Write the structure tokens for this entry.
Amino acid sequence: MAQRSKYPPLLIVRTLAAWAITLLLFFPLGWLILTAFKTELQAIAVPPLLFFTPTLENFAVVQERSDYLLYAQNSFITSVASTVLGLMLAFPAAYAMAFFKGKHTKDILMWMLSTKMMPAVGALVPVYVMAQFAGLLDTRTALVIVFTLSNLPIMVWMLYSYLKEIPHEILEASRMDGATLWQEFRMVLLPLTLGGLASTGLLCLVLSWNEAFWSLNLSAAKAGTLASLIASYSSPEGLFWSKLSAASFMAIAPIVVFGWFCQKQLVQGLTFGAVK
Amino acid sequence: MAYLELQGIEKEFGDVRVIRGIDLQIRQGEFIVFVGPSGCGKSTLLRLIAGLEETSGGKLMLDGRDITDEPSSKRDLAMVFQSYALYPHMSVFENMSFALKLAKVEESVIAEKVARAAKILNLTDYLQRTPKELSGGQRQRVAIGRAIVRAPKVFLFDEPLSNLDAALRGQTRIEIAKLHRSLGATTIYVTHDQVEAMTLADRVVVLRDGKIEQVGTPLELYDRPANQFVAQFIGTPQMNVVAAKDIQAWVQQMALPVEPDGFLGLRPEHVTLCAAGQGLTNARVELVEALGAETLVYLSTAAGVQFVARQTERTSLAVGMEVGLRIDLDEAHLFDAKGRITRTGKARPTLVH
């Protein structure tokens, strides 16, 4: 190496750039957290306040005014239900496509992906009308169905890319050893794809939790998720910044904490296909 | 009575007929080798017997039972895959005991059987390791052990030595031969390596384009090939085959009963070299390969006909020298225009085992 110094200039530049970008990305979130602990007056102060006496009054107001627990419960139920349902539907599909590839498998996969390219608003009217017709407006059922269907293409793709990596000869060996299809699945396939299922499930969980468009349009008072909670603070009376921040903070806290603990699996799941 | 019988087996992938009518009878305890060039269908045939692919036609009988429509799990066959196909999430012990566990065999019996197989294959110290922690040769032995433990009706091997280096391949080949002698199990072994075929087989099945070219003991195939393809496939270096057209002088001289459009075949060991002018014809040395135990000399006659001569003595021949070719035409195999044998070389005595 030509460089003698421990910290070559290029490395310093790269480090500073990385920090700058990270701070830039983190800034909105960081400001949100700060603002949640300010009073309304402090929140709109010019120049913006960095140091202040924190207060918890916003959280109290949010909890008083709207039923946080109801919204949180709805978010939780719809996310978990859509994840479980999605996995149950996506796994057999991915299995069939990975191990029994036919002439049109590639086309089907491409078509599934293409449905994600349409903006959700394009399907809003038909979905709304169907939900209304079925009497499912403002129900968790409608949200679970819509979330599952929205996430299904991604789940099928992720599970497909995981399953593709498993050599089909291992499954053939289990068949020769006398395993029925169910035994092959339970004792050989499942242990090998547990990582993939976990990553896919986590991703779907996060996507469903953060889903705002359909939550806002298909629900009102009863089935509203935390997205609705946040939205209810952007009122015509004006923007109550600190309360809005507090509500947002309470809405994203659970999933951020959860994601923090599962970040390894999440990253693995998202980047898995990229390396091969 | 045949233990394993294939009757008119056919297999199509879409429009392509990969297996085109195979009839074969295998006796109990026989070691059968399927050999042939790439794409001849030998692995497909093995997979059809294993039940990993469905036949497009024909019948498969095992020990008197029709297993054509039975799933793999019910055929009581064990397969050793080319890539070993060990279960990565299980230890060696669990890999070897998987089939018995599925069959709900008692744990103590399982432990005993696995211990016995592990001892035969020198795997006793590795029973708790996972496949990741094993070398290629060890994984190979676990794959074989997995099959032995089940004591199936037939063992199926799909090119098991292809992924091993040359030294290990030779060693493992001998171990497989010894194993067969001690277990006496019916075995079907697929390989593209004719040395494995010659050394391991009781009988060899030579396949080409989905059809059987010849079935026989290794030496039968060597001494009495049924056609040009088998003659040139078995034996390294390849049998010298020349068109009768190119050697008309000899045909007339020796009154060889070969068709004008036919072919003459000579094994390299039946081509001897002498001083130029003293043999049947002269030839120029193109290449000398000294292998230690034997020497191969590649020659070309004035007319451009190529020959390979094999001799056990070391030679001082060099490229460019002229030598005489002495050919024992009694040893020649004669083929017709389509490559079918019309006269094999001198019958040699076969040693009875």
Summary: Chain A has a mean pLDDT of 85.
